[in-house]
Amino acid sequence: MFRKYDIRSSENACKTLVGLSGVDISTWEKYVGREKEYRYTDDLVEDVIKTYGRFPKNYLDFDFIYFHVTTSANDCAAIKRYGILDLKQAYLCEESEIRIFLDQHGVFLNLDNGLLTCNGRTYDITFYSGKCPRTGTQEYLCWLIGRKFYYDYTTCGFLSVEKRSPYGGQVHRRPEILWDIDNLLRLDLSGKWVQSHFPYEITAHVKGSDIVFDGDEDQSDKDKVLMYLTMAYDTAFVKPCEHILLMKNGIQISPDSIIEIKPLSCWN
């Protein structure tokens, strides 16, 4: 049985904290403002749970509710049909907006052979981990594109955000890969995308076993759970901040895992 983990708002974070720890809200409220009595906030959270509640055994059976930020010119039609795809699968999907857009602008990728073609020129975008070309070179710009398609291509989203401060990758304006392609080809695909696409937030859920733990993998199961419960405490009672959720390689979010698709409500 999967247990719900949702910290997209302070209210949701309160419910998550109570539901997963077994500590009632009135007890948690008694500790609000006492963070300075502890070295770290997670020490406070651990103390409260040890005294009044219980620790979940692992985060792997959490049902993480998060939202994915994207842009679309057709109300996310392809996502409704195919789900949230990683960058590699999105390009291979001929109905995806990124594939259609690149095709329309004469940018073609051969991902099997690590090649990008535009205006009769072919570029080697093969990615070698740990072998980064010198910055400022064409090889480096090609390497950055390859890195996106062969290494940093997984789907991601946000457990919570600081609503006044947009994510640095500007994913609410355009796909990050367009910035890299622009730099190599000296185009303005990013600008053209922004003119015709609008930001959306897609609420979905994913199993804990399908995410990348955002911390030290050598930590104990209890410490991993404590990290997520501390995120819930901070969001509920201190200050919401940006918490990114990253999926494992090869994990796609199917349409039946999508809860809602709507225009983006933050960062406008």
Could you please describe the fold and organization of this structure?
- The chain is an alpha+beta fold.
- Helix content is 37%, strand content 19%.
- Helix 1 (10-21) packs antiparallel against helix 10, helix 3 crosses helix 10 and helix 7 (138-150) packs antiparallel against helix 8.
- The two termini are 37 Å apart.
- The mean pLDDT is 94.
| Helix and strand run | EHHHEHHHEEEHEHHEHEE
User: What is the CA–CA distance across the termini?
Assistant: 37 Å
Q: How many strand units?
A: 9
Shape: elongated
Mean pLDDT: 94
Q: Any idea how many domains?
A: 2
Count of helical stretches: 10
Indicate the topology.
Layout: E1 3-6, H1 10-21, H2 25-31, H3 41-52, E2 62-72, H4 77-82, H5 87-92, H6 97-104, E3 107-110, E4 115-118, E5 121-124, H7 138-150, E6 156-160, H8 176-185, H9 189-196, E7 198-207, H10 221-238, E8 243-246, E9 258-263
Parallel strand pairs: 1-2
Antiparallel strand pairs: 2-7, 3-4, 4-5, 6-8, 7-9
Helix pairs in contact: 1-10, 3-10, 7-8
